UniProtKB/TrEMBL annotation:
Keyword Transport: yes
Species assigned in the record: Paenibacillus segetis
Entries under PROSITE patterns matching the protein: ABC_TRANSPORTER_1 (PS00211), ABC_TRANSPORTER_2 (PS50893)
GO MF annotation, one: ATP binding
Name the UniProt record assigns to this protein: ABC transporter ATP-binding protein
Record key words, sorted: ATP-binding, Nucleotide-binding, Translocase, Transport
Cited SMART domains: AAA
Pfam families found in the cross-reference section: ABC_tran
Amino acid sequence: MTNSSELNIIDVKGIVKSFKRTPVLQNVNWSVKPGQFWGIIGPNGSGKTTLLNLISGVEQPDRGEISFGGKALTSYGRKELSRRLAVLQQDGLPSVPFPVRDVIQMGRFPFQDWRGKETDENAEQLLEEIMEKLELKELGNRPLSVLSGGQRQRVALGKVMAQQPEVVLLDEPTTYLDIRYQMRFMELVSSWQREEGLTVIAVMHDLNLAALFCDRLLVLQEGNIVAEGTPDEIMSSETMEKVFEVKTHVINHPDVGAPQLLLKTEKRSIVNE
C-alpha cells in the first residue's frame, strides 16, 4: 500500500511546538487516511491535546506543516474548515439555558449565509434524524442546564453531527461520564463513523475503551511518537511498561477479541471478620 500524501486526509510533517520554551511536540510526523478511527494515547503532558489543537487550527506550530485534504491547513478559512472538520472537547457544552434542539442547530453555522439563513433545504430533516438517533427528541425543548452530564455530551455530539464533517476530533470525550455513558457515547460515535465513512481522531485516557473502538493507536511520550499501529500491535505489556511505567496483563476481550489491560498488583490476603 502506498503512503502517498494524495491518499491521506491529514498529513503532519515535522511539527515542533513549545510553550514558554518548554518543548511539547518534537518533530512529529504522522498521516491519517480517510475513514480511519485513531486513538491518541500517552501519559499526561505527552502532547496529545496540543497535537489535536494543531490539527484543528486552534494552535499554530512553531515549525512544520499540517495538510488537510492535500492543502495546507493555514489556507482554509474558518468557515470553510468547519464544513469539513468538527471538534468536540472533553467538557462538551457548558450548562446554559438554551433548548436542546437550538444547541444542536448551532452546528449548522458553517452552512448559513451572511444573514444567518440555512442554505440546505434538508437541514430540518437532518436535525430530526440526529435527535432520533441520539434519543434526544423528548428532550428537544428542555434547557441544557437541567440535563445530566451524559445527556449534555450527547447534545454536544448532536451539534457536531449537524456540521456533517468529514473529520471529527474528540478530546477525551468520556472523561466526565460514568461507565454506562462512556460505552453509550463511544458506541454512538463508532456507529456514526461506520455509517458515514468518517475519519475520527480521539485523545483517549481509557486504554481499554481505545482498544475496543479505535482501529489505530498513536502513542505519544514526552512530545515524541514512540509507537503507532493497531491495538493488537500497541497494547502489549512491554509497551505499557515502557510508556506508562505500569506492569500489566493483556487479555483478549471475550466478545470482540480486542486486547484489554489488567493492572498487575501485589496479592492481598482477605481477612474475614
